[in-house]
Amino acid sequence: MSEASIQQVPTTPFDDQRAGTSGLRKPVGVFEQPHYLENFVQAIFDTRPELNGGLLILGGDGRFYNDIAIGIILRMAAGNGVGRVIVGQHGLLSTPAVSHLIRKYQAQGGIILSASHNPGGPDGDFGIKFNTANGGPAPESVTEAFFQKTLEIDSYRIHTGDAPDIGRIGGFELGDMRIDIIDPVRDYAGMMQDLFDFDAMRELLASGFQLRFDAMHAITGPYARHIFTDLLGAPAEWILNATPLPDFGGGHPDPNLKHAAALVALTRGENGVDFAAASDGDGDRNMILGKHCFVTPSDSLAIITANAAMIPGYRNGIHGVARSMPTSQAADRVAERLGIAHYETPTGWKYFGNLLDHRRITFCGEESFGTGSDHVREKDGLWAVLFWLNILAGSGRSVADILAAHWREYGRNYYTRHDYEGIDSGIATQLMDDLRAQLDSLPGQRFGEHTIAWADDFSYTDPIDATVSTHQGIRIGFENGSRIVYRLSGTGTQGATLRVYLESFEPDPAKQQHDTRQVMQALVDIANRVAGIRARTGRNAPDVIT
Ligand code: VG1
Ligand code: CO
């Protein structure tokens, strides 16, 4: 190719391009600054030389700025010698679909444009994540190399030609680089058909069973339409908010009890539906609901693990299970019963990668509505929904029955999370520092029926590569098995978000159907007192309770 068509554009560094829990996430306005996206993308190409001559998967959740970013990245890929890029039509690909495509086509990496569950639109957030050749989110060593590069960058390379119209499926050329624009859904749907019993699910949906899926105007709409309607025969109306919109219809594409309240309402009352589920902006999260019941993500991981033998893709046995540290210990109990290993990792999917790659685990999950398995290297919203639907079809039981039976057998881990959003960063950091300073004096302290047994600042050593990750959250354990965890969010874009995670174990079946808020009230009060949340933040209540 003539070098004349590749331009070397001078630039100056930005100092804020360090990735958080999941990629680089900023308000759209930050990304719209000249060279902001380009600098970060050049840092990727500079530090991942295998992309030169290699294959890159590219797509996003369709939020505002997605199409513009795709055009820029395609031209920069051509400018940096990438051999071939596979792009989802209209620039759409869910996070788990990107992970799958990287693995299926043995790509050297993938770029996902998303700020996940954060709101979108001109005043919302945008984000960019890089996934490595195993299909998983880049580990910290990789994102740290990006960051260091962005601090010293002085130019980026971009092809001067036009990127093709990404609305058209087909093969194109940009300079020496090939671009394949593909159906974003087909490969992913094929993988789901390999894992689950579609005949049994089709039969269930034709039997009067009522399902609703809320795509929240985000990426899973086209996937859900194809899987539930075309392949499983569900009426099209069962898929709600199925068209991806740049601003998610003004909503907050976070599938939880607050932001998917309209869906929750459909499960209530005499005509409540049997099964309802939702996913987030980029399709990696899931919420599972039954008639009059909500399955916490922590319980969902435990139930998925306990019922794996019912599912075709997992019938031949499973390795261990991993959960992020704040996730309830429900899955541990199942693992112990099954005689498989269980692991506790820091928050963020990247920490599961090594365990999955080395077959230490088959399933993994986070309390933040994320569940997944070794079929890809990301959490996978629709996968979790199909897993549940397959359990329902195979067992003939309701969601509430499955939940109650699970608690009877293993005990119930009551669980709740309180988020205080947009608090002053200085106050948040001080709160965490003061908690850390109290760690030695906490054990032995008594609060009514709760006595603190231990307290620590969670640190994780990866069992495969021995990488140590420190300061991953403050944990307080009580003599009765209850836990309180405090950590600061790494995905927010305004001030700081304090997350308080609370868990209490109830082995007695007679006490397993109580109201979570009532059961957890005493622990909530203790969490407040120990950290002084009210006094420090001036907040009387959390912004979001899940
Ligand atoms: C949150 C969740 C975490 C999840 C991350 C990315 O991070 O707590 O469990 O992995 O979002 O999810 P934080 O640092 O804000 O607590 V998503 O759907 O962005 O990819
Ligand atoms: Co997400």
Question: What report would you give on this structure?
Answer:
The chain is of the alpha/beta class. It folds into three domains: 182 residues, Alpha-D-Glucose-1,6-Bisphosphate, Chain A, domain 3 (3-Layer(aba) Sandwich), CATH 3.40.120.10; 223 residues, Alpha-D-Glucose-1,6-Bisphosphate, subunit A, domain 3 (Alpha-D-Glucose-1,6-Bisphosphate, Chain A, domain 3), CATH 3.40.120; 134 residues, 2-Layer Sandwich (TATA-Binding Protein), CATH 3.30.310. The chain is 32% helix and 25% strand. It contains 17 helices and 27 strands. Strands 2-6-5-3-4-9-8 form a seven-stranded mixed beta sheet, with helices on both faces. It has a seven-stranded antiparallel beta sheet with strand order 20-21-24-25-26-19-27. α2 packs across α3, α2 crosses α5 and α7 crosses α13. 52% of the residues are buried. Bound molecules: alpha-D-glucose-1-phosphate-6-vanadate and cobalt (II) ion (CO).
Q: What is the topological layout?
A:
Elements: E1 6-10, E2 24-27, H1 28-31, H2 36-47, E3 55-60, H3 66-79, E4 84-92, H4 95-104, E5 109-113, E6 125-131, H5 140-150, E7 155-159, E8 170-174, E9 177-182, H6 186-195, H7 198-205, E10 211-214, H8 220-231, E11 239-240, H9 261-266, E12 275-278, E13 287-290, E14 293-295, H10 297-306, E15 320-324, H11 330-338, E16 342-345, H12 353-357, E17 361-366, E18 370-373, H13 381-395, H14 399-410, E19 412-423, H15 425-438, E20 446-447, E21 450-457, E22 460-461, E23 468-469, E24 474-478, E25 483-488, E26 496-506, H16 516-531, H17 533-537, E27 544-545
Parallel strand pairs: 3-4, 3-5, 4-9, 10-11, 10-12, 15-16, 15-17
Antiparallel strand pairs: 1-7, 2-6, 5-6, 8-9, 12-13, 13-14, 17-18, 19-26, 19-27, 20-21, 21-24, 22-23, 24-25, 25-26
Helix pairs in contact: 2-3, 2-5, 7-13, 10-11
Alpha-D-glucose-1-phosphate-6-vanadate (VG1) binds at residues 21-22, 116-117, 280, 284-285, 324, 347-349, 366, 368, 370, 489-491, 499.
